[in-house]
Amino acid sequence: MTSASFKSASGPARRTVVAAAGAAGLSVALTACGGSDDDSSGSSPSGAAGAAGGTAAASTGGGGGDDAAAGAALSKTADIPEGGGKVFDSEKVVVTQPTAGTYKAFSAVCTHAGCAVKSISDGVINCPCHNSNFSITDGSVKSGPARKPLPEVPIKVSGDSITLA
């Protein structure tokens, strides 16, 4: 009998085991890089922006603020620093004040891997997972790995109150 005709009946071939282990490892790696949220915020294009209620930004496109209820009070205008902003974790929204009296809101879900943005400093919104940075003015990517901007979330400024539109 030659070694070419010898077949083991004891289990799967070595190639099958190695391929399965590689697929399992890839699956774990991809899961670790992804967030627990669905990635709808990164794949949905943002609509045209306009003003709603004073100088607040508004958007008609879908965004990561889908979990936030329209009309929900977010903050007082005095709580949003000029040139900075504030992250509202439970609403998945970040509100910024790029210039005095101009308020903008964006999804707080990073478009790279679905992590929550956590801070605002030096005019950028920061995602701690992979260090993506976004503009407080328009949500555009300032540094990656993210490639898509944060979607705008419609807000309304009435007096000194900021609410979701």
Walkthrough of the structure:
By secondary structure, the protein is of the alpha+beta class. Helices cover 15% and strands 29% of the residues. The longest helix is centred in the N-terminal third of the chain and has 20 residues. It is elongated, with a radius of gyration of 23 Å. About 24% of the residues have low confidence.
Mean pLDDT rating: 72
How are the strands of the biggest sheet laid out side by side? 7-8-9-10
Counting DSSP E segments of at least 2 residues, the number of strands comes to 12
Helix content bin: 10-25%
How large a portion of the residues is in β-strands, by DSSP E?
A: 25-35%
Could you give the distance between the termini? Answer: 79 Å
Write the layout of secondary structure elements.
Layout: H1 14-33, H2 40-43, E1 49-51, E2 57-59, E3 73-76, E4 84-88, E5 93-99, E6 102-107, E7 119-121, E8 124-126, E9 133-135, E10 141-143, E11 155-158, E12 161-164
Antiparallel strand pairs: 1-2, 3-12, 4-5, 5-6, 7-8, 8-9, 9-10, 11-12
Q: Which key features would you list for this structure?
A:
single chain, four-stranded antiparallel beta sheet, three-stranded antiparallel beta sheet, 12 strands, alpha+beta
